Amino acid sequence: MEDHAGTEENDLYTGASLLIAHQGRVLYQRAFGYARAFTLQEDGRLVRLAKPVPMSQDAVFDLASVTKVAATTVSVMHLVSEQKLALDARLGALIPEFAQTDKADITVQQLLTHRSGLWQWQPTWLYLQNQENIVDYIAALPLRYAPGERRAYSDLGFMLLGKIIEKVGGMPLDDFVKQHIYHPLAMKDTGYRPGPQLKQRIVATSHGNPFEQKMVATGKPYPLAQPLPEPPFTAYRDYTLVGEANDGNAWYGLGGVAGHAGLFSTVGDLAVLGQTLLNGGGYGDYRLTDSDTLQTFLQTPYDNNQALGFWKNTDNTGLSYWHPGFTGTQFLIQPENELIIILLTNRQHKGLDPDSGRYPNLTPIWQELVSLVTKAVVRKEH
Predict the structure, then answer these.
(1) Structural domain tally of the chain?
(2) Locate the Beta-lactamase-related domain: which residues (predicted)?
């Protein structure tokens, strides 16, 4: 991991934090590179900082889509365990705005497994007068596919799960996760919209939202469901993001608190959450979920690689439940091997590649890391 960290052209990220835990014990924890190394000038150029900020083991990262499991999935799991929400509950019954739409019969389980038929992504912020009417906006959108027809990974589906948690839980999403998950688990560095007490430890991500602006301009990889509104959106950020959700829908559309993105955390806090799941749903005196509900969430009712919320991989070393995030984050547990692997990076911080227009691809090194660690653990056990 260290070989890929730095500020040079071939480096994959400026910095990273890695934690590996096995059987309830941290085997390896280390930070590499820099938490902040570049700043965006007024003329749009990226300039290296004279004194880059080193990465620390307690660095706080924007998790991006790891939010889907570390906030939303475990919140739904908790509500199901408490018998306050059913997986077969229908969207139209949970959120009144959907009652008379073609989306009324979409179930919570279909939302969790990306089989809702909703669009994968849309720039919601372009069409909103205020953050309150994002539900109306999604309700009015045409379906991308028939509900249940196929798996199509959907940010919009997890935005709605966030709204369902608020409705059933009776409080804003950020308050719910703090009260029911992070505070009981002593995950003190985890939450939405991190406060000033964490500012010195927060890792920088992108410089504005150039990738999403390109998605809007090109309609790739997801076509726009509606024509662009007039006048055009002019409130894009033009500075280096530190402590603000990188995700445009989370930040512009939902004020930084969303079911699909926006959560901040550390490798240490995420390891506690991972261990809670490996323990069958409990940690210390706190029980997030009962073991039966947890096992239900680890099933794959429709697609072999998609559990409820979690992605699932199977190979000769066992089952992995995991989720990536666009900012360069990865969270993985292996129940059979009692293993946790968490890799958090700031792959966006060097900016978009001038040739490909993309951020670095971390999939090969992540797959290699998981394979090496898992084989070493399995070999040690035998």
Answers:
(1) 2
(2) 14-351
